[in-house]
Amino acid sequence: MKIQIILAGAAAMFLSTAALADPGHSHGDDRAYGKPGNPKQPARVVQVTMRESDGKMEFVPNRLEVLRGEQVRFVLRNNGELDHEIVLGTLEENLKHGEEMRKNPDMEHDDPNAKRLAPKRTGEILWRFTKAGEFDFSCLIPGHREAGMFGTIIVK
Question: InterPro entries under this entry (predicted)?
């Protein structure tokens, strides 16, 4: 009986974490667009505001340029009236993950390249851009990217 209770508890824990999004990578990996930053090293601070305005949803700014190897501390603020998130990735990854979010709108992210914020809340992402290229950041809550909530990161 005790073993059945333990197994049932373990199964419940496993199933409760199944709704957490990990868009196809483990946390320590060096991804196409970089890797989690090191809090012991200096970082350029970039403030990003999330908001709704005139029927649009947007990030301000929606275009960033960084140098390859640069570490960036994204200081995030949701000035909107709705929950918003930011997910750093390749455009292909974010579009694919956006489709998954439409099927599972209650999905939450537990990944160092993503942060979801309630209205009037703040948060941070610390990221090192290790490869040159053009990358995406999007709010993947269903309908938000389509309403204009995306941006581009150019790594030189």
Answer: BlueCu_1, Cu-binding_ET, Cupredoxin
Q: Tally Cβ neighbours within 10 Å of residue 50.
A: 26
Check which CATH number belongs to the domain holding 140 and give it.
2.60.40.420
Long-range CB contacts (within 8 A, 24+) of 147-152: 147/55, 147/56, 147/57, 148/56, 148/57, 148/58, 149/50, 149/57, 149/58, 149/59, 149/84, 150/59, 150/62, 150/94, 151/59, 151/61, 151/62, 151/63, 151/64, 152/62, 152/63, 152/64
Number of domains in the chain: 1
- Residues lower than pLDDT 70 in the chain: 1-29
DSSP tag of 5 = H
Give me the count of residues in the chain.
Answer: 156
Distance, CA of 80 to CA of 133 (rounded, Å) = 30
Contact predicate 85/116, CB 8 Å: yes
> What range does the domain containing 121 cover?
2-155
Rounded to two decimals, the pTM is 0.79
- Residues above pLDDT 90, as percent of the chain: 70
